[in-house]
Amino acid sequence: MADKILILTGDAAETLEVFYPYHRLQEAGYEVHIGAPEKRRLQFVVHDFVDGFDTYTEKLGHTWEADIAFADVNPEDYVAIVVPGGRAPEYIRNNEDAKRIVRHFFERNEPVAALCHGPLLLAAAGVLQGRTSSAYPELAVDVETAGGIFENGGGVVDGNLVTGRAWPDNGTWMKAFLDVLEGAKVTA
Protein backbone atom coordinates (compact mmCIF):
# COMPACT_ATOMS: atom_id res chain seq x y z
CA MET A 1 0.00 0.00 0.00
CA ALA A 2 1.43 3.39 -1.05
CA ASP A 3 1.96 6.22 1.40
CA LYS A 4 -0.78 8.85 1.15
CA ILE A 5 -0.41 12.59 0.53
CA LEU A 6 -3.27 15.06 1.04
CA ILE A 7 -3.86 18.12 -1.13
CA LEU A 8 -5.79 20.82 0.77
CA THR A 9 -7.85 22.90 -1.65
CA GLY A 10 -11.32 24.03 -2.71
CA ASP A 11 -13.27 25.92 -5.34
CA ALA A 12 -11.28 28.46 -7.37
CA ALA A 13 -7.99 26.67 -6.85
CA GLU A 14 -5.59 27.13 -9.76
CA THR A 15 -5.99 24.08 -12.03
CA LEU A 16 -2.27 23.69 -12.80
CA GLU A 17 -1.33 24.03 -9.13
CA VAL A 18 -3.65 21.17 -8.16
CA PHE A 19 -3.17 18.83 -11.11
CA TYR A 20 0.61 19.08 -11.43
CA PRO A 21 1.39 17.91 -7.88
CA TYR A 22 -1.54 15.47 -7.97
CA HIS A 23 -0.23 13.66 -11.03
CA ARG A 24 3.49 14.12 -10.29
CA LEU A 25 3.11 12.58 -6.83
CA GLN A 26 1.03 9.73 -8.28
CA GLU A 27 3.76 9.18 -10.85
CA ALA A 28 6.25 8.93 -7.98
CA GLY A 29 4.09 6.17 -6.45
CA TYR A 30 2.09 8.03 -3.79
CA GLU A 31 -1.65 7.71 -3.24
CA VAL A 32 -2.95 11.29 -3.48
CA HIS A 33 -6.23 12.52 -1.99
CA ILE A 34 -7.98 15.84 -2.52
CA GLY A 35 -9.29 17.35 0.72
CA ALA A 36 -11.76 20.24 0.67
CA PRO A 37 -14.32 21.93 2.92
CA GLU A 38 -16.88 19.40 1.63
CA LYS A 39 -16.65 16.11 -0.26
CA ARG A 40 -18.12 17.20 -3.60
CA ARG A 41 -17.15 18.28 -7.13
CA LEU A 42 -14.88 21.34 -7.03
CA GLN A 43 -14.59 24.05 -9.68
CA PHE A 44 -10.99 25.04 -10.40
CA VAL A 45 -9.82 28.12 -12.33
CA VAL A 46 -7.04 29.06 -14.72
CA HIS A 47 -4.89 32.07 -13.88
CA ASP A 48 -2.78 33.56 -16.62
CA PHE A 49 -0.52 36.55 -16.99
CA VAL A 50 -1.48 39.03 -19.72
CA ASP A 51 0.63 41.94 -20.95
CA GLY A 52 -0.79 45.23 -19.73
CA PHE A 53 -2.55 43.78 -16.66
CA ASP A 54 -1.31 44.59 -13.16
CA THR A 55 -2.29 41.12 -11.95
CA TYR A 56 -3.31 37.73 -13.34
CA THR A 57 -6.56 37.03 -15.18
CA GLU A 58 -8.98 34.27 -14.21
CA LYS A 59 -11.07 31.89 -16.30
CA LEU A 60 -13.03 28.75 -15.40
CA GLY A 61 -10.88 25.63 -15.40
CA HIS A 62 -11.49 21.94 -14.79
CA THR A 63 -13.74 20.35 -12.19
CA TRP A 64 -12.64 17.54 -9.88
CA GLU A 65 -14.12 15.47 -7.08
CA ALA A 66 -12.84 16.01 -3.56
CA ASP A 67 -12.04 12.69 -1.89
CA ILE A 68 -12.59 13.82 1.70
CA ALA A 69 -13.95 16.74 3.72
CA PHE A 70 -11.45 18.50 5.98
CA ALA A 71 -13.56 17.60 9.03
CA ASP A 72 -13.15 13.90 8.23
CA VAL A 73 -9.36 14.01 7.78
CA ASN A 74 -7.21 12.12 10.26
CA PRO A 75 -3.78 13.68 9.61
CA GLU A 76 -2.13 10.49 10.91
CA ASP A 77 -3.31 8.79 7.69
CA TYR A 78 -1.01 10.98 5.57
CA VAL A 79 2.76 11.41 5.27
CA ALA A 80 2.66 14.91 3.76
CA ILE A 81 0.38 17.73 2.61
CA VAL A 82 0.27 20.05 -0.39
CA VAL A 83 -1.48 23.44 -0.43
CA PRO A 84 -1.92 24.76 -3.98
CA GLY A 85 -2.81 28.35 -4.75
CA GLY A 86 -5.50 30.10 -6.67
CA ARG A 87 -8.21 31.76 -4.63
CA ALA A 88 -9.12 28.67 -2.57
CA PRO A 89 -6.61 29.48 0.20
CA GLU A 90 -8.36 32.85 0.74
CA TYR A 91 -11.36 31.05 2.21
CA ILE A 92 -10.06 27.65 3.36
CA ARG A 93 -7.74 29.57 5.71
CA ASN A 94 -10.87 30.26 7.78
CA ASN A 95 -11.67 26.55 8.09
CA GLU A 96 -10.67 25.29 11.55
CA ASP A 97 -10.15 21.74 10.30
CA ALA A 98 -7.84 22.90 7.49
CA LYS A 99 -5.75 24.78 10.09
CA ARG A 100 -5.80 21.72 12.39
CA ILE A 101 -4.39 19.57 9.59
CA VAL A 102 -1.65 22.10 8.77
CA ARG A 103 -0.62 22.43 12.44
CA HIS A 104 -0.37 18.64 12.73
CA PHE A 105 2.29 18.51 10.00
CA PHE A 106 4.28 21.43 11.36
CA GLU A 107 4.19 20.13 14.94
CA ARG A 108 5.66 16.84 13.71
CA ASN A 109 8.07 18.45 11.21
CA GLU A 110 6.52 16.42 8.37
CA PRO A 111 6.70 17.47 4.69
CA VAL A 112 4.53 20.39 3.55
CA ALA A 113 4.43 21.99 0.09
CA ALA A 114 2.61 25.28 -0.59
CA LEU A 115 2.44 27.33 -3.77
CA CYS A 116 1.26 30.79 -4.76
CA HIS A 117 -1.60 31.76 -2.38
CA GLY A 118 -1.18 28.49 -0.41
CA PRO A 119 0.92 30.18 2.30
CA LEU A 120 -2.21 32.16 3.29
CA LEU A 121 -3.46 28.95 4.94
CA LEU A 122 -0.10 28.46 6.65
CA ALA A 123 -0.19 32.04 7.94
CA ALA A 124 -3.72 31.59 9.29
CA ALA A 125 -2.64 28.35 11.00
CA GLY A 126 0.11 30.30 12.77
CA VAL A 127 3.01 28.20 11.47
CA LEU A 128 5.10 30.71 9.50
CA GLN A 129 6.74 32.44 12.47
CA GLY A 130 10.49 32.46 11.78
CA ARG A 131 10.08 30.32 8.65
CA THR A 132 11.30 31.19 5.15
CA SER A 133 8.52 30.97 2.58
CA SER A 134 7.96 31.92 -1.01
CA ALA A 135 4.48 32.78 -2.31
CA TYR A 136 2.91 34.82 -5.07
CA PRO A 137 5.14 37.92 -4.78
CA GLU A 138 2.26 40.24 -3.85
CA LEU A 139 1.78 38.06 -0.74
CA ALA A 140 5.21 38.92 0.68
CA VAL A 141 3.41 41.22 3.12
CA ASP A 142 1.18 38.34 4.28
CA VAL A 143 4.17 36.04 4.89
CA GLU A 144 5.99 38.80 6.78
CA THR A 145 2.90 39.85 8.78
CA ALA A 146 2.63 36.20 9.92
CA GLY A 147 6.23 36.40 11.20
CA GLY A 148 7.79 34.65 8.22
CA ILE A 149 10.69 35.60 5.99
CA PHE A 150 9.66 36.06 2.35
CA GLU A 151 11.97 34.65 -0.35
CA ASN A 152 11.08 35.28 -3.99
CA GLY A 153 11.96 31.84 -5.39
CA GLY A 154 10.56 28.81 -7.14
CA GLY A 155 11.65 25.91 -4.95
CA VAL A 156 12.32 27.48 -1.55
CA VAL A 157 13.11 24.90 1.13
CA ASP A 158 13.05 25.60 4.86
CA GLY A 159 13.32 22.26 6.66
CA ASN A 160 10.05 20.40 6.04
CA LEU A 161 8.49 23.32 4.11
CA VAL A 162 8.76 23.73 0.32
CA THR A 163 7.21 26.79 -1.32
CA GLY A 164 7.05 28.53 -4.69
CA ARG A 165 5.53 31.58 -6.36
CA ALA A 166 2.96 30.23 -8.85
CA TRP A 167 2.37 27.53 -11.47
CA PRO A 168 5.40 28.49 -13.60
CA ASP A 169 7.42 27.13 -10.62
CA ASN A 170 5.67 23.71 -10.67
CA GLY A 171 8.78 21.82 -11.85
CA THR A 172 11.29 23.30 -9.39
CA TRP A 173 8.71 23.29 -6.57
CA MET A 174 7.80 19.60 -6.96
CA LYS A 175 11.44 18.59 -7.53
CA ALA A 176 12.36 20.23 -4.22
CA PHE A 177 9.34 18.62 -2.51
CA LEU A 178 10.24 15.16 -3.78
CA ASP A 179 13.77 15.73 -2.42
CA VAL A 180 12.32 16.68 0.99
CA LEU A 181 10.09 13.58 0.95
CA GLU A 182 13.14 11.43 0.17
CA GLY A 183 15.20 13.15 2.87
CA ALA A 184 12.39 12.51 5.39
CA LYS A 185 12.47 8.87 4.28
CA VAL A 186 8.87 9.19 3.10
CA THR A 187 8.81 6.87 0.12
CA ALA A 188 5.93 5.78 -2.03
UniProtKB/TrEMBL annotation:
Keywords: Glycosidase, Hydrolase, Protease. Gene3D superfamilies: 3.40.50.880. The keyword Protease applies. Residues 4-178 form the DJ-1/PfpI domain. GO terms for molecular function: hydrolase activity, acting on glycosyl bonds; peptidase activity. It is an enzyme of class 3 (hydrolase). InterPro entries: C56_PfpI-like (IPR006286), Class_I_gatase-like (IPR029062), DJ-1/PfpI (IPR002818). GO terms for biological process: proteolysis. The keyword Hydrolase applies. Pfam families: DJ-1_PfpI. CDD domains: GATase1_PfpI_1. Belongs to the peptidase C56 family. This is Protease I.
